[in-house]
TrEMBL record, chain A:
Pfam families: RNase_PH (PF01138), RNase_PH_C (PF03725). The keyword Oxidoreductase does not apply. This is Exosome complex component RRP43. Keywords: Acetylation, Cytoplasm, Exosome, Nucleus, RNA-binding, rRNA processing. One of its GO terms (cellular component) is fibrillar center. Residues 1-24 are annotated as: Disordered. One of its GO terms (biological process) is rRNA catabolic process.
From TrEMBL, chain B:
GO terms for cellular component: cytoplasmic exosome (RNase complex); nuclear exosome (RNase complex); nucleolus. Residues 1-11 have a biased composition (Basic and acidic residues). GO terms for biological process: nuclear mRNA surveillance; poly(A)-dependent snoRNA 3'-end processing; rRNA catabolic process; rRNA processing; U4 snRNA 3'-end processing. Pfam families: RNase_PH (PF01138), RNase_PH_C (PF03725). This is Exosome complex component RRP46. The gene is EXOSC5.
Length: 300, 235
């Protein structure tokens, strides 16, 4: 190698080494005192990834990617990725409500998404998330269960909604709610007629219709820091350092479907009011995104 | 050996147990609490709200499995057993709510690498179950002598279709209501520690329920204070 080229190569290495050393110091501080590291950013009203306290991560949604499912959606909230697939099957309606169908959600947090989940029966976090989604479906009346009935007392649709997290980086509840909403909007059910002579169901796969989605519940999650500060859309690390979390699910009329605050530091009524207003703006953002995606797919 | 202390309190305009008629607005059902009734757990309490009854037992601070230990604070565990059947996903959800509420008030840093287990058994369910579980858990933690920074209580509100607010509803009222909200409040500043809601409601209704719950929690905390004073003044 010529002498000139060799000198330039060494200079470049020197610059890189100095830059890496500075970065290493910040990384070291972050490992030893993660809370202090965070507080330094919060004092300047921003977060390590550059977001403001009330800013959401980039949200992307992809509809209809699973061809074998009746409806599907993939939602990415920054790094957090959740995919929802909806399958429709036949079932006998419940005896105490013969004109209603079923919507059965299930949230799965496999070992793929994060190192803290092991394979085996669903852990507590997955069960809590499943219960949360079931509550949102029930409270918001997103689908009228009577719409799922084909023949009262004999046949009804059951929608199995499976939500699988592919990448866990915090704020799983928001992503799951959005994925569920997008997938349900994408579901197309074939027309079913009961043959009078044979009493069997005849499915007409050529004639499909969309579900009647009555409301659009949108979830907004907050993390509480040091009992006073509220940040929106926490990442995995922020959730770990937070002293409490709060999730608000709102529909378009400003009605609350769910106020989920599983313990943690206390909040005053005034702070709750701030959260409500942020949830209203988030609802508008998400609704706009959903409408864009649906419009891009509908003319098929 | 401490004797059992059975304390009852008649709060509000109640006239007795059972299905006493309630005035419009805010009044709680009759409630009662019994402490130190089980011999094996470090602390135990039975809380009665109307016909809803929950029995709580606390073990701790005790030895913890190495896989579950946290180096700088105590590991809190809550086990909720329903009256009939095996515990399911709904119980897991309630366990998580109660556990996070307890974690916010218990001074876990005083007992690192230990475990505090709260076991709740539903004896009878006649509405406002989650609130009754929270109250029983708090009384049992006090009986066990676990250090806490505040006491907490659970209050349930039900909103009818015409907007009337009913505190501490019975199960019939809960089924007919448009929305049922359960709050856990601490006694230092009446801040909202935990909230679990069912049904649709507006923002204004939420603030109204929260204010009513904060007013009702004063009664519950007064009852806690009186029953503990009665228990410790004689011994």
């Amino acid at each position: 190698m010529s002498k000139v080229r060799w000198r330039n190569r060494r200079a470049g290495e020197e610059r890189r080494r100095r830059r890496r050393a500075g970065g290493k110091m910040a990384a070291g501080f972050k490992t030893v005192e993660p809370l202090e590291y965070y507080r330094r950013f919060l004092k300047e009203n921003c977060r390590p990834d550059g977001r403001e306290l009330g800013e959401f991560r980039t949200t992307t949604v992809n509809i209809g990617s699973i061809s074998t499912a009746d409806g599907s959606a993939l939602v990415k909230l920054g790094n957090t990725t959740v995919i929802c697939g909806v399958k429709a099957e036949f079932a006998a309606p419940p005896t105490d409500a013969p004109d209603k169908g079923y919507v059965v959600p299930n949230v799965d947090l496999p070992p793929l998404c994060s190192s803290r989940f092991r394979s085996g029966p669903p852990g507590e976090e997955a069960q809590v998330a499943s219960q949360f989604i079931a509550d949102v479906i029930e409270n918001s009346q997103i689908i009228q269960k009577e719409d799922l009935c084909i023949s009262p007392g004999k046949l009804a649709w059951v929608l199995y909604c499976d939500l699988i997290c592919l990448d866990y980086d915090g704020n799983i509840l928001d992503a799951c709610t959005f994925a569920l909403l997008a997938a349900l909007k994408n579901v197309q059910l074939p027309e079913v007629t009961i043959n009078g002579e044979t009493a069997l169901a005849e499915v007409n796969l050529k004639k499909k219709s969309y579900l009647n989605i009555r409301t659009h519940p949108v979830a907004t999650s907050f993390a509480v820091f040091d009992d006073t500060l509220l940040i929106v859309d926490p990442t995995g690390e922020e959730e770990h350092l937070a002293t409490g979390t709060l999730t608000i699910v709102m529909d378009e009329e400003g009605k609350l479907c769910c106020l989920h605050k599983p313990g943690g530091s206390g909040l005053t009524g005034a702070k709750l009011q701030d959260c409500m207003s942020r949830a209203v703006t988030r609802h508008k953002e998400v609704k706009k995104l959903m409408d864009e995606v649906i419009k891009s797919i509908k003319p098929k | 050996m401490e004797e059992e202390r059975h304390t009852e309190a008649k709060i509000g305009a109640e006239t007795g147990r059972g299905s006493s008629p309630r005035g419009p607005g805010c009044s709680l059902r009759h409630f009662a609490c019994e402490q130190n009734l089980l011999s094996r757990p470090d602390g135990s309490a039975s809380f009665l709200q109307g016909d809803t009854s929950v029995l709580a037992g606390v073990y701790g601070p005790a030895e913890v499995k190495v896989s579950k230990e946290i180096f700088n604070k105590a590991t809190l565990e809550v086990i909720l057993r329903p009256k009939i059947g095996l515990p399911g996903v709904a119980e897991k959800n309630r366990e998580r709510l109660i556990r996070n509420t307890c974690e916010a008030v218990v001074l876990g840093t005083l007992h690192p690498r230990t475990s505090i287990t709260v076991v709740l058994q539903v004896v009878s369910d006649a509405g406002s179950l989650l609130a009754c579980c929270l109250n029983a858990a708090c009384m049992a933690l006090v009986d066990a002598g676990v250090p806490m920074r505040a006491l907490f209580c659970g209050v349930t509100c039900a909103l009818d279709s015409d907007g009337t607010l009913v505190l501490d509803p019975t199960s019939k009222r809960e089924k007919e209501a448009r929305a049922v909200l359960t709050f856990a409040l601490d006694n230092v500043e009446r801040k909202l520690l935990m909230s679990s809601t069912k049904g649709l409601f507006s923002d204004a209704e939420l603030q109204q329920c929260l204010a009513a719950a904060q007013a009702a929690s004063q009664h519950v905390f007064r009852f806690y204070r009186e029953s503990l004073q009665r228990r410790y003044s004689k011994s």
